[in-house]
Design goal:
Helices cover about 65% and strands about 0% of the residues. The longest helix is centred in the middle third of the chain and has 31 residues. It has a domain of about 30 residues. By secondary structure, the chain is mainly α. The protein is built from 2 helices and no strands.
């Protein structure tokens, strides 16, 4: 974080317009979030590849789950 502040300060003193920095930083954030979105969407395909299995009864579960009574 400190390096980014130092680079921004040096760039401002060297004469790069603030609009350029805004586009670079905003574009970098946008690209990062889009990559994370694509990674997240790719994991939904992994979940759809396998059949759903019943969860085994866990006696050490911390939260009480109501068991079906039939």
């Amino acid at each position: 974080m400190l390096n980014a502040l130092i680079l921004a300060t040096e760039a401002a003193s060297e004469g790069l317009p603030s609009e350029t920095w805004a586009l670079l930083i905003g574009g970098g954030i946008f690209v990062t979030l889009m990559i994370l979105l694509l990674i997240t969407v790719s994991y939904t395909n992994v979940g759809n590849r396998h059949d759903v299995k019943d969860e085994p009864h866990d006696t050490h579960r911390q939260f009480k789950v109501h068991e079906p009574k039939h």
